Amino acid sequence: MDIAGEFVFDLPQETVWEVLRDPRALASIIPMVMDVKQITDNQYTGSIFFRVGSVAGTFQGKIELFNIQEPNSYDIKVQGSSSVGQATINAHMHLESQDNRTTMFYHGNIHFGGRIASVGSRLLEVSTRTIIQQSFETLSRYLTVKYKKS
Q1: For 121-136, what is each residue's pLDDT tens digit?
Q2: Which residue blocks in 45-120 are alpha helix, DSSP H?
Q3: What is the pTM of this model?
Q4: pLDDT tens-digit profile of 69-111?
Q5: Which of 76, 78, 86, 143 could form a disulfide with 113 if both were Cys (CB 3.0 to 4.6 A apart)?
Q6: Which DSSP state fits 20?
Q7: The dihedral formed by the CA atoms of 113, 92, 130 and 144, expressed in degrees to the nearest 10
Q8: What CATH number has the domain spanning 2-147?
Q9: How far apart are alpha carbons 27 and 117 in whole angstroms?
Q10: How far is 105 from 92, CA to CA, in rounded Å?
Q11: How far apart are CA 66 and CA 46, in angstroms?
Q12: What one-character DSSP code corresponds to residue 116?
């Protein structure tokens, strides 16, 4: 499944970049993430509970950032597995700043395997896009509360 989109944050690019590199912040923002631990500067492990239809499982995985162009962009690879299957994400994210606002652009692909893939691509797509949208909305609220001055 291919993914692509953009999201606008009402804060400077450096602030958005800082949070996108903070595993504790990301763990609190992404729905159903149970933990994220930093292994090296650009590698993390974590777990996320994922439900699609009647199939649900806790995926344990590895996250790697590469081709990092601070504070503009990076590529990300996520590999996870659970008792209900596997998921691999390869994506690129870049930020653009304009008038003290930051637009995040992203594109990539997600591949599901195992029993979770049997629920069908339409259900997987809806669930994945919902998680992505909720994550960006929560990130925006987090940034506003933590960094925005009244």
Answers
A1: 888 999 999 999 999 9
A2: none
A3: 0.88
A4: 999 999 999 999 999 999 999 999 999 999 989 999 999 999 9
A5: 86
A6: H
A7: 150
A8: 3.30.530.20
A9: 25
A10: 8
A11: 17
A12: G
